[in-house]
């Protein structure tokens, strides 16, 4: 009888996102605070007797070789120490709940959960820092999910300082438009020179005085996002996550969030989730001996 291991793959939000510089290689330097949500995709891993890696079901429009779960598993396998003699094969299943391309980091989260889970299941013994480096080649947000704690991030997201922040209840709204991260970063009207936070501001970390540099551009390009944002701001502090288009609105209680959710214009997808300072994956790893 084979063991199947179940792991979550949580969403993240960027409580703020300042773009401070554009590097020579075209990538942008950011300052952001990441927070996880108690709303996740679910992944299962069943080790195989051979060295095949399978993934079901397929994500429509994402070929297997491009799927970040498959890529993460392959990357890890390719770096396995030569002392590992058991076959590194696994059947992976994905229960996708997170909207894709909305700034909730689902792909990066899936990759990070895969790295963490397979490192443990295959007994590879890699340190978190090594997994984070393997993950960075897959996506800028993967290291945050590997480290698994709310964090202030700099660089392209790989310079990480863990922080403990407030954990409100969020109403997350999901506009129907799919926004490509690359298209926002390439846009000429993106603000790219927000001043870096001073040491004093970082100590205080008052999230209300920060903003998301992508927000105005995304609102201009996608009137649906602008309309939804204007509607939400009537009820609660609301901000874009990442390069959008999901918006998070903060509340003190689930009841208050539900009240606003029930008034949302028809056809706006939404869910309610609490902010977390720790990724649920950390506790789940403890369960695997
Ligand atoms: C900006 C964030 C904040 O969380 O946005 P979301 O994608 O979650 O909305 C992320 O760091 C995004 O990370 P991720 O989605 O992994 O981006 P990647 O695949 O690494 O990059 C996609 C493309 O966006 C551009 N890019 C990305 C990150 C960055 N710091 N500067 C960039 O210029 C590059 O053109 C790159 O080719
Ligand atoms: N396992 C995966 N889950 C989600 N998206 C994936 C996955 N593998 C590859 N992708 C690709 O990554 C893109 C960005 O997805 P996602 O991480 O959900 O959004 P965002 O970067 O806006 O937070 C998707 O549109 C898809 O093409």
From TrEMBL:
Ranges where the GHMP kinase C-terminal domain occurs: 208-264
Keywords annotated in UniProt: ATP-binding, Isoprene biosynthesis, Kinase, Nucleotide-binding, Transferase
Q: Coiled-coil annotation: which residues?
A: none
Question: What's the catalysed reaction?
Answer: 4-CDP-2-C-methyl-D-erythritol + ATP = 4-CDP-2-C-methyl-D-erythritol 2-phosphate + ADP + H(+)
The answer to whether keyword Nucleotide-binding applies is yes
Q: What InterPro entries does this protein's entry cite?
A: GHMP_kinase_C_dom (IPR013750), GHMP_kinase_C_sf (IPR036554), GHMP_kinase_N_dom (IPR006204), IspE (IPR004424), Ribosomal_Su5_D2-typ_SF (IPR020568), Ribsml_uS5_D2-typ_fold_subgr (IPR014721)
Record GO terms (molecular function) = 4-(cytidine 5'-diphospho)-2-C-methyl-D-erythritol kinase activity; ATP binding
**Pathway field:** Isoprenoid biosynthesis; isopentenyl diphosphate biosynthesis via DXP pathway; isopentenyl diphosphate from 1-deoxy-D-xylulose 5-phosphate: step 3/6
Domain GHMP kinase N-terminal positions: 67-148
Sequence positions that bind ATP: 99-109
Q: What is its EC number?
A: 2.7.1.148
Q: What does this protein do?
A: Catalyzes the phosphorylation of the position 2 hydroxy group of 4-diphosphocytidyl-2C-methyl-D-erythritol.
Record-stated family: Belongs to the GHMP kinase family. IspE subfamily.
**Entry protein name:** 4-diphosphocytidyl-2-C-methyl-D-erythritol kinase
Q: Which organism is it from?
A: Thalassotalea litorea
- Its gene? ispE
């Amino acid at each position: 009888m084979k063991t199947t291991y179940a792991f979550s793959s949580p969403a993240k939000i960027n409580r703020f996102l300042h773009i401070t510089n554009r590097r020579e290689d075209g990538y942008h330097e950011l300052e952001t605070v990441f927070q996880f949500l108690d709303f996740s995709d679910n992944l299962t891993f069943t080790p195989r007797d051979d060295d095949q890696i399978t993934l079901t079901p397929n994500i429509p429009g994402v070929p297997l070789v491009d799927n970040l779960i498959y890529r993460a598993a392959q990357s890890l396998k390719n770096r396995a120490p030569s002392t590992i003699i058991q076959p590194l094969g696994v059947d992976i299943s994905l229960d996708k709940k997170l909207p894709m391309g909305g700034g909730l980091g689902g792909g990066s989260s899936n990759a990070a959960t895969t790295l963490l889970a397979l490192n443990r299941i295959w007994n590879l013994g890699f340190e978190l820092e090594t997994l984070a480096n393997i993950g960075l080649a897959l996506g800028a947000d993967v290291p945050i999910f590997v480290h698994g704690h709310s964090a202030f991030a700099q660089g392209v997201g790989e310079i990480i300082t863990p922080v403990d922040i407030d954990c409100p209840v969020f109403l997350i709204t999901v506009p129907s438009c799919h926004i490509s991260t690359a298209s926002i970063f390439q846009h000429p009207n993106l603000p790219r020179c927000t001043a870096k936070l001073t040491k004093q501001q970082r100590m205080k970390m008052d999230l209300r005085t920060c903003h998301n540099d992508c927000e105005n551009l995304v609102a201009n390009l996608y009137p649906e996002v602008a309309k939804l944002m204007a509607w939400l701001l009537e009820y609660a502090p609301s901000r874009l996550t990442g390069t959008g288009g999901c918006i998070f609105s903060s509340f003190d209680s689930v009841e208050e969030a539900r009240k606003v959710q029930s008034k949302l214009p028809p056809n706006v997808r939404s869910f309610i989730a609490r902010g977390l300072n720790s990724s649920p994956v950390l506790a789940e790893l403890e369960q695997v001996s």
